[in-house]
């Protein structure tokens, strides 16, 4: 296991193992909680007993959890049924929405979440990096101080609170919509009109999410660049008479980006779930909202699917970060 | 989508930071009557327009058999027809069935079916579709609610395309009520479905005044007017239900005109909405009662359903009806309504709500709030505070639970927003009569597991949403339901059970109403439950975008599609 190929292989192997552990852990986690899923899953805990019994059988909840010692087949259990279906890409049927496939529900929610987080992440990353760079470069100036205060403020602001305030201001002063992805049932004169409408709907949630993310990116970037500026090779570059632009572009940026790559990758992975608060405030039907709803209903299939997806997002984002790391800093692959 | 410029003052009102003292109530009551009574000045309603309604939830299924949420039932009411419908005043009206009658044996019902009804795909609706639907609902045990309406039909036949004959297993007293949730499905589509529970019914072909245009779970549902409807055709082109999971966003959307109507908004928003121009607020008792309850573990150890996991650890003193009466007398229902629900409720009596017409036993008198009388009752029964710690002990020699005094466990469902406040209020009210409660909130699932049929609790706070017909909720207190988990209290009174059986077979409405009144009296006398209040329905709508809102339909609100059929775009 040497060199780039081995590095890649071991990283992918660890990622797969992590996912398997997550799958099993999710399965156990929801079942050690008190209560009867056959009742909770169908939302109405006071459902009539006949319907409860029928639904229990429908979802296989009458079977043993892990191993079946009673019938001849020890693998006729909830756990192995779940693993078997999962291997075929089948996430099962929701308990709460009995005529819906978990895969469809998650797919739809994931698209919504990506529409929400991707623009916000991109804007936050670009502005955060530029602002951090600028602040580090003009360290101690009034620009640095104001950027610092602004970033600390937005970073520490509770997402939910910021969202509610922006919602009120936007709705009252600018007549911006308070929920949804676009005006429902609208007929657009042109393609541009449609995108303008979507843009209006995205404005408030994106702004909220951007502000929340921005501070962290700016602060990490600033301190990272300040660290690099004190390195000997920057001094050397200065001594060679290189322009500030060349120093930043060729010498500082690549090194300063190392911690940023980690942060961005982690944030991207976690923001699939981290949009919960923004989604709640703006009634955005994404993964976060779906997960919260499923927790309330103890909808095991949806929860297992959602947690698997969240774990996948984090694991894959980390994997990508490791690979980019290897490219940015070849020393990593030799280690 | 009109951006409405607003002042900071208006914003603060919305935030509830300013208590505007000049609020005038705009909700008016009109005599119930024809739908056209309040349709405004315009004689000919404008056709067209998209009516947008902001709701808190989202229909959980387009398949009527699977629906659990009220949002789903609103949708079914609009897209499907039922044989008989329930009108705003609580009376039963012909819908697909033009008339119905029972034969001399009291068990054979015949309905005459309209011959001018077509499904949204153009196929005619006949008696065959009704037979198919009723059998499907009856025989699909995994449908959560609908099977219970047709469970006593032992044969359903269609001798010809316009008649349905139903034979019941014994006489029944609520035939009409059993017909109002039977959404008639097209047989030609549903007969090809292998597993009706797994069927998503994405096309949702019905025969109602609206047809499905588009549905996006948790986002919106678009319904278009059915221009070929046999009954009154809606004036609007489209009705759009949009989900706003955040209640404040829902209120803001009505204020800036993004939606024309909202339902279920926080009590705190009522005042602000009343002060908003061109917005009308309606508060009414729903026909399907929604109630809060405080109930006692009264299960007799002899009735403990040990085979079903019964623990029956309830405090023995709660099985003494005097203690329960004293607890009921010490509860100030109006204060609970004012504090916990900000006044949006009416004091409760029993399982039948004030919006349920003549079923509500208005002549039965409830316990009047009187802490002194409650104290006297406990004193007289020998519950005295012998050790001076402020909590009463049981009469000497009596089993008095683990603490040896009147200390009760008190659990509430933590998904009820007002529950913690109500629990605090109760703690204070009962402390005044020497009773202590130890409060603990539990998620509904855990609450179920300690509730029933386990009976491992003392007092619980929860709630019920009922049917327009009282038979469903009144069945909660039957002896036979103790082991099924449906009975929450373990209450058992043979007199009550006998009356319940009697109403089930009583074909005469007035006689049946009388039986339900007697049963409500028994529940008041025996106090297995304290019903502090019935929740009110709240709705608000804009008067500048659409007109013709029928306020006489208040109690039904959105449950009745006719209100959405009569509104029209403002001129």
Q: Care to describe what's here?
A:
The complex is a heterodimer of chains A (335) and B (571). With 335 residues, chain A is mainly α. Chain A has helices at 3-31, 37-40, 49-58, 78-87, 102-137, 142-156, 159-174, 191-229, 232-239, 244-274, 276-281, 287-297, 300-328, 331-334. Chain B has 571 residues and is α+β, with helices and mostly antiparallel strands. Chain B has helices spanning 8-15, 70-79, 127-139, 147-150, 175-179, 187-190, 247-255, 269-274, 321-329, 333-340, 371-380, 419-431, 444-451, 471-474, 494-505, 509-526, 562-566; strands at 50-55, 84-86, 92-94, 97-102, 108-113, 153-160, 163-168, 210-216, 220-225, 238-243, 261-263, 279-284, 290-296, 345-347, 407-413, 436-442, 459-465, 529-535, 537-542, 546-547, 568-569. A 7-stranded mixed sheet of chain B has the order 8-9-10-1-11-19-12, sandwiched between helices. Chain B has a 6-stranded mixed sheet with strand order 14-18-13-17-15-16. In chain B, strand 4 and strand 5 form a beta hairpin.
Tags for this entry?
heterodimer; A: 335 residues; mainly alpha; globular; B: 571 residues; alpha+beta; seven-stranded mixed β-sheet; 21 strands
How much is the radius of gyration of chain A in Å? 25 Å
Amino- and carboxy-terminal Cα gap of chain A: 11 Å
Secondary-structure element order of chain A, N to C: HHHHHHHHHHHHHH
Number of strands of chain A: 0
The first-to-last residue Cα distance of chain B is 17 Å
Helix content of chain B: 25-40%
User: How would you write the strand order of the largest sheet of chain B?
Assistant: 8-9-10-1-11-19-12
Contiguous uncertain segments of 5+ residues of chain B: 1-42
> Largest interface by residue count?
A-B, 55 and 68 residues
C-alpha geometry of chain A: globular
Measured as a percent range, the helix fraction of chain A is over 70%
Oligomer: heterodimer
Overall geometry of chain B comes to: globular
What percentage of amino acids of chain B are in beta strands? 15-25%
Range of strand content of chain A = under 5%
Which sheet architecture does the biggest sheet of chain B show? Answer: 7 strands, mixed
Instruction: Calculate the mean pLDDT score of chain B and round it.
Output: 85
